[in-house]
Amino acid sequence: MALETVARLDEVPIGSRKLVKIGNTKILLFHLETGFYATQAYCPHLLAPLKSGKLLEGHILQCPFHRAQFDITTGEVLRWANFPPGIQALNLLRSEKCLTTYPVIIDGDAIRVDIR
Ligand code: FES
Predict the structure, then answer these.
(1) Which atom of ligand 1 is nearest to the CA of 66?
(2) pLDDT digit string (tens) for 5-31?
């Protein structure tokens, strides 16, 4: 386990997200109604920055480039790249790939992420 402190609790209010860096790895930290979650910061399709992705239904992150949708809590792909029309041809080379997620631990007022 490689726990790293990435923020204080008051820096990430409920409904917000924060881009953090651990070594050379950028991670997105989310504070959802159900708790804190951490994911990779770039889309596994074509590396769009997910910080500006739209949050749907409280836990689904939609990529700003080609609208792939991921469950933030598990990393599961709910919908792969589907916009604009024709992107499916590219998907033959860029097949579905889950979002990497990282365990988050609250330690006092510190938010810690296990990057392993
Ligand atoms: S870069 Fe995210 S869906 Fe294409």
Answers:
(1) 3
(2) 999 999 999 999 999 999 999 999 999
- Asked if pLDDT for residue 116 goes beyond 90, the answer is no
State which of 39, 43, 52, 94 you would mutate to test the pocket of ligand 1, scoring each by most atoms of that ligand within 8 A of its C-beta: 43
Q: What angle do CA 109, 42, 106 make, to 5 degrees?
A: 15
Q: Does the global pTM surpass 0.70? A: yes
On whether the CB atoms of residues 58 and 39 are closer than 8 A, the answer is no
Closest residue by Cα to atom 1, ligand 1, is: 46
Look at 75 and 89; give whichever has higher pLDDT. 75
> For 3-114, which CATH class?
mainly beta
Answer whether 81 contacts ligand 1 (Cβ < 6 A).
yes
Instruction: Give the domain ranges of the chain.
Output: 3-114
DSSP tag of 100? P
